[in-house]
Write a structure and sequence with these properties.
Helix content is 81%, strand content 0%. With 208 residues, the chain is mainly α. The longest helix has 29 residues, at 39-67.
Amino acid sequence: MGPWAIFATAFTVGLSGAMMPGPLLTMTIGESGRIGFWAGPLLVLGHGLLELALVIGLLFGLGGFLAKGSVAGFIGLVGGAFLLWMGRELWLGSRTQVLDLEGGSTPAKGGPILAGITISASNPYWLMWWATIGAAYVNMALGHGTKGVALFLGGHLFADLAWYSLIAAAVTAGKNFISPRVYRGILGLCGLFLMALAVYFIYSGFAF
């Protein structure tokens, strides 16, 4: 997979995860209602700082270990399997999923940046994602050096920034910006894309 293909797929995978309801979405809705639009980008900044630290840790602490063929193959298989499950759940859930902009949360202690860090770090799903899909992506991006890893992380974080900024803007404006039918359609397409990408990951895992 080429460098810009890594960016594009990382963006799509990141968008698929961001669009599903979760603690970061709930906090974005609540904080945007309290402090306005910038709650969204600031929460993503905290979330992104944690992910940047994690990627740096993977590169400098586990870079050599991840480069081993047997390890890379295993990570690709596990990451592909988790991605396949994630895509299936997203596709099935797209039939009934609703984007609720009326929900709220308790005020963020320490501000939205700190909240973005703590919410992500305490989310088991986030930890599982990075232990499987994220590790597989970093390993694949390493084939293109620092540029590949930067494009992967950039695509992933840009998806978060774009989606949560849209949510914050919609909450601030006091209206829904996307119809339930369109929202479900996008989720369904993302689910199918994730399942297709999972096949690629699994194939790559067997190729090592």
